[in-house]
Amino acid sequence: MDFNQGWSKMFNKVAIGGTFNVLHKGHKALLTTAFMIAKSVDIGLASDEFANRFRATQTRKYEDRKQKLIDFIEKFDKKYEIIEIHDSYGIATTDPKVDCIVVCEETLLRAEEINAIRFKKGLNKLVIVVVPIMLADDGKPISGERILNKEIDEDGKLVGSPVS
Question: N or C: which end of the chain has fewer CB atoms below 10 A?
Answer without folding.
Answer: C
